[in-house]
Amino acid sequence: MDDTLRDLYQDVILDHSKHPRHFGKLTDATNTAQGHNPLCGDRVTMYLKVDAADRIQDIAFEGKGCAISQASASLMTDMIVGRTVAEAEQLMGGFLHLVKGEDASDLDPDDRERLDVMAGVSAFPMRVKCATLAWHTMKSALESGEAAKTE
Amino acid sequence: MTAQTKIASAFDPQAARADFPILSKPIYGKPLVYFDNGASAQKPRQVLDAMRDFASTEYANVHRGVHYLSGRATDRYEAARRTVQKFLGAAHEDEIVFTKGGTEAINLVAYSYLAPRIQPGDEIVLSVMEHHSNIVPWHFLRERNGAVLKWVDIRGDGSLDIEAVDTAITDKTKLVAITHISNVLGSVTPLAEIVARAHAKGVPVLADGAQGAVHEIVDVQALDVDFYTLTAHKLYGPTGIGALYGKRKHLKAMRPFNGGGEMIREVTHDTVTYADPPARFEAGTPPIIESVGLAAAIDYLNGLDRAAVRAHEHDLLTYAREGLRQFNWLRVIGDAPGKASILSFETDGMHAHDLATILDREGVAVRAGHHCAQPLMERFGVASTTRASFGLYNTRAEIDVMLEALAKARKILV
Questions:
Q1: Other residues' Cβ atoms within 10 Å of the Cβ of residue B203
Q2: Strand B33-34 to strand B96-99: parallel, antiparallel, or no bridges (unpaired)?
Q3: Residue B268, Cβ neighbours under 10 Å: how many?
Q4: At CA B138, angle to CA B134 and CA B143, rounded to 5?
Q5: Chain A partners of B354 at a C-beta cutoff of 8 Å?
Q6: CB–CB of B354 and A9 under 8 A?
Q7: Pairing of β A42-50 and β A56-64
Q8: Cis peptide before B278 (omega within 30 of 0)
Q9: What are the DSSP calls for B389-402, one per residue?
Q10: B37: closest CA of chain A, how far (Å)
Q11: Is residue B84 part of a domain?
């Protein structure tokens, strides 16, 4: 197989997409948002429970999408539980740099290592929006609860 | 076997391939297999050369200057109009309006023809397999004029039931807006019958010919259709130009679309009077070089045996359809009898975008997504499909490459 394809569809990605973590609804969510990728029609709903200290206590997502978008959502939910809103947004900034092939040195080394499975996306510019949908939706939920778009 | 030999003698796709420079460009080091013709077709050098030669030797603005080049350019532009007229079988050249594409042609009809005739509650009949370009302009009339959109469902195989169309047409119907060929399913609608049924109730018909003009041999007079739209870039021509055919009686009665130069008779401080069609609808400098390209594309197609091209495309469709049967995880959407060479499918456990990415790395260009036809996706309960659409230069060997790539994608993703 083509190396860049192997980088994109590595086992970790396929595992996350087939067995997404935190998949489902959150009945006691404080923040929710719907995300939509108008290119492919994919949709994702993000549920977050944020406490008074601005810490993300719990998170869940629902939706259908490609392997990249599902894996990215699953990985993201795994990584931001327990972080503050500011930390989640900072992580997102680093993630966006990573998948766009930009300098991602703003990421904490441990985070960088966990997110490394998504780095292969940078070789597929047409697929960056798939990887970022869940993140934009998470941010949108934290900010206003309004619908996020990857446009 | 006999049929194959016969097709080969009337149309040789290998010879045609040599006319399309891009087909020899490798993609990721592999031969390009271009199956995204439904989105836009590649251009033969005859089109590219015609545009370059015209721009190099005869170009100026049209209908304005008294100088030599302006005269030459105007002649070429009006000759292109006659080429489109003959291509569609229109009775008069002034029934052809150049637009920037198929989308603008439909918007022109919505604004200039239908909007002034719509009262709240009036109905527009359309099918669930319309492209967004033949939906959104009518939504505008719903939002702004109180029009009601009446959707006609299709059969499970993607074919359109003429009785369902007939039933949808009532005394409130002001227009039937229907595709000639579905860009997703390839279904060919029974256009002549639709027109006959609609006219029996005094209702005009607009046909979206973005795909129809490519795959069918169109005769607007035989169809008796009121409006027919096409776009050049799907017809092996350039982007930036399309055409609207409208019956003379309709065009004459329509208000202008855009305002600007070229579309007026006289402008004063207080008044303006408008030019006759088609100039009335061609405000501003038109796509002049593109008109030469469109005419060259039509000339190119006319230089081929179009019936044989159609048979070749049908052979590709049949071959691909049979080849896909080996995959029990794949479901073709749309199997209407006599459909055009457009094949959409969905797959278990694989998303269209992942599939398209892997196919792309094998050099196979397909479309993945909703194909600007979300109501149709909803009809079939899918978010997106993968679509392979075949053009005149495609071959069976290329379909074999796609089939192998599909098997490979399955191995990677599942």
A1: 21
A2: unpaired
A3: 7
A4: 150
A5: 9, 66-68
A6: yes
A7: antiparallel
A8: yes
A9: E--TT--HHHHHHH
A10: 18
A11: yes
Q: What is the DSSP letter of B187?
A: P
Q: Which of B279, B302, B325 is the last residue of a domain?
A: B302
**What domain count does chain B have?**
2
Final residue of a structural domain among B302, B337, B355: B302
Q: Distance from B30 to chain A by nearest Cα, in Å?
A: 12
Specify the pTM.
0.92
* CATH code for the domain in which residue B100 is found: 3.40.640.10
Burial class (CB in 10 A: 0-12, 13-18, 19+), B2: exposed
* Token pair 């939509």: residue: A36
What count of residues does chain B have? 414
Question: Would you kindly state where each structural domain of chain A is located, as residue ranges?
Answer: 3-146
Per-residue tokens: B8: 């080969």
User: What DSSP designation does A48 have?
Assistant: E
* Closest alpha carbon within chain A to B385: A40
Q: Tens of pLDDT along B87-146?
A: 999 999 999 999 999 999 999 999 999 999 999 999 999 999 999 999 999 999 999 999
Residue at B408 is within a domain: yes
Angle between helices B288-302 and B68-88 (to 10 degrees): 40
Question: Per residue in B340-399, pLDDT tens?
Answer: 999 999 999 899 999 999 999 999 999 998 889 999 999 998 888 999 999 999 999 999
ipTM for the predicted complex: 0.85
CB-based contact (8 Å) between A4 and chain B?
A: yes
Considering only CB atoms, which chain A residues are within 8 Å of B412?
A: 1, 5, 9
Among B28, B358, B370, select the one facing A40 at the smallest CB separation.
B370
Amino acid at B26: P
A8·B351 Cβ contact <8 A: no
Domain that residue B228 falls in = 48-302
Active site residue: B149, B372, B382, B413, which one?
Answer: B372
At B162 the pLDDT is: 97
Kindly list the residues from chain B whose CB atom is less than 8 angstroms away from the CB atom of residue A39. 369
Structure tokens at B232: 């050049």
Hunting for tokens 């046909």 — which residue is that?
B207
Whether residue A68 and residue B383 make contact (CB cut-off 8 A), yes or no, is: no
CB-closest option in A5, A41, A43 to B358: A5
Is there a contact between B413 and A9 if contact means CB atoms under 8 Å apart?
yes
**Is residue B43 one of the residues assigned to a domain?**
no
